[in-house]
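User: I'm curious whether this sequence folds into something compact or stays loose and floppy. Could you predict its structure so I can see for myself?
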Amino acid sequence: MRELTIDEIDDLALGATLLGTGGGGDPYVGKLLVKQAIADHGPARVVGPEELPEDGRVLTTAIIGAPTVILEKIPAGTEFRAGIRALAAYLGEEPVALMPIEVGGVNTLVPIATAVELGIPIVDADGMRRAFPQIEMTVFTLHGLLAAPMSIADEKGNMCVFEATTNQTAEALARAAILQLGLANAISCYPMTVADVRRAGIHGSMTYCTEVGRRLAQVKRGTARAWEKLLDYTEAALVFSGKVIDIDRRTTEGFARGTVVLEHLEDASRTMRVEIQNENLIAFEEGEAVVTVPDLLCLLDYESADPITTEGLAYGQRLNVLAMPCAPEWHRDGMFDLVGPRAFGYDIDYVDFRENQR
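Assistant: Here's the prediction. I'll summarize afterward.
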């Protein structure tokens, strides 16, 4: 076990913004929640799954909804504890720890704040090591683990617990509920045993996120060779630098969807189109896919290296486009069916951006 102090939160939040791939909700609010929780209750206790009893119950908590709505509908904080308590009561079992469902965006930080408030540790693991827009899009699904039973709670005291026979049905039920509850709510899903986390989780994801944030902070400070060190650590590649010349953005069916078009900074004949569903999904250059899910597609301010969330995109911004490989735990049977381009409605094959870098 180790302690996560307030001093580490800024690096963790910066890494979470990058791994959010434009979505996952801006971690700024989550950072404030964590800092306040630590100030009130003391440091967060971070544990590896091997440090917990294998039959212990691990619960998750997260914000579910559209990132554009989260900007205006600030979490109260009480809804996360309420959702955990509702699911624990339904299961008849108290959790020994909480865990992020995704290490990317605000949902990296919300479970930490909630764990501190509940006085239990947070597990250094997750189910994505990035952000994805739908509940079923986790490595836990690839291992046959169910997202349900799950709970959804809002800031007004409304809550419900669902059973579902498939994770796709769990997503449909949850999305229907949040449409009625304000499009930014607390969810607790994938109630697992510690043994399940040991077998199916992406271990060390919070530590990885903090290290990514620390290296990106060095880039922002102008430290020598910082870009090179960040790219080496994440196995990422800079695939395009351009200016935003067109944005189409809308909130439909509980998701923030859109398209952003970039014109290359040095060659105006080159353009890149990025397709969005909460997160940046696919980048096309001259009609050809060059980066695709499940790999990460991140947009960073050209001057400051700040990761730009999809709701923060604006006409005229100068951006670097960074491609990063997904966690190796994704590479197993069923990955492309679950989180490949066709899972999002694009009739194209997965493209390994690293092939174009060699």
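Summary: The first strand starts at residue 2 and ends at 4. The mean pLDDT is 94.
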